[in-house]
């Protein structure tokens, strides 16, 4: 049984830095953790499932949920809406789970405001060229989207200064081990 330092563990990173892969490994290895599945208006990618990868919503439905104050945080990222539904987080905590958030830097700040005990971890790629190659290899972005993701890097790195921890993901095993050192109590 692992003892986690917080019920709220937040990961942010530029697209392609590897945060989703790191989170996947952690969720497989630490049963007390559960992923907060975000809601989004972006189209499904091949192989994604509603309720598992994201809660896919129409823009109108998402905007109504904002008006109804159903989100812990929400943001526009690359022209799509993303958000964390409060009821989903509360359900996981009620089940005794530590909630893992895979969200953008602004969303991370909002979670920290709601839950000051949250641990904020920013995952960085080794460098911009590696990041660009990872995005190209993913084959899920057109050139316009790729350029927009790379343009956002400076902003994300500025916001990352507010995070509790920064991890460079140039070796997955080492990055996962470092995250464990941060989130698990001695």
Describe the structure concisely for a colleague.
By secondary structure, this protein is an alpha/beta fold.
Mind explaining what this structure looks like?
By secondary structure, the protein is α/β, with parallel strands linked by helices. It has one domain (8-183): Rossmann fold (3-Layer(aba) Sandwich), CATH 3.40.50.300. The chain contains eight helices and nine strands. Strand 5 (71-77) and strand 6 (80-85) form a beta hairpin. Helix 1 crosses helix 8 (172-183). The mean pLDDT is 89.
CATH topology: Rossmann fold
Shape label = globular
- The H/E string reads EHEEEHEEHEHEHHHEH
Number of helices: 8
Overall CATH class: Alpha Beta
Instruction: Please state the second-level CATH architecture.
Output: 3-Layer(aba) Sandwich
Class from secondary-structure proportions: alpha/beta
User: Which strand order does the major sheet show?
Assistant: 2-7-1-8-9
How is the biggest beta sheet arranged? 5 strands, parallel
From the N-terminal CA to the C-terminal CA, the straight-line distance is 12 Å
List keywords for this structure.
single chain; 186 residues; alpha/beta; Rossmann fold; five-stranded parallel sheet; four-stranded mixed sheet; 8 helices; 42% helix
Please describe the topology of this protein.
Layout: E1 8-12, H1 19-29, E2 33-36, E3 39-40, E4 55-56, H2 59-67, E5 71-77, E6 80-85, H3 86-94, E7 98-102, H4 105-114, E8 119-124, H5 128-138, H6 143-151, H7 153-160, E9 165-168, H8 172-183
Parallel strand pairs: 1-7, 1-8, 2-7, 3-4, 8-9
Antiparallel strand pairs: 3-6, 5-6
Helix pairs in contact: 1-8
């Amino acid at each position: 049984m692992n003892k986690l330092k917080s019920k709220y563990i937040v990961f942010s990173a530029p697209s392609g830095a590897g945060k989703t892969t790191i989170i996947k490994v952690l969720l497989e290895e630490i049963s007390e953790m559960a992923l907060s599945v975000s809601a989004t208006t972006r189209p499904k990618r091949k192989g994604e499932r509603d309720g598992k990868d994201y809660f896919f919503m129409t823009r109108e439905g998402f905007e109504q949920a904002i008006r109804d104050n159903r989100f812990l945080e929400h943001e526009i990222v690359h022209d799509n809406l993303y958000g964390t539904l409060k009821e989903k987080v509360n359900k996981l905590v009620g089940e005794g789970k530590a909630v893992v958030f895979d969200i953008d830097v602004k969303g991370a700040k909002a979670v920290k405001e709601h839950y000051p005990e949250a641990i904020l971890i920013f995952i960085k790629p080794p460098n911009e060229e590696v990041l660009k190659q990872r995005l190209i290899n993913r084959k899920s972005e057109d050139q316009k989207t790729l350029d927009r993701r790379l343009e956002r890097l400076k902003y994300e790195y500025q916001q990352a200064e507010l995070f509790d921890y920064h991890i460079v993901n140039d070796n997955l095993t080492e990055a996962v081990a470092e995250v464990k050192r941060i989130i698990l109590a001695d």
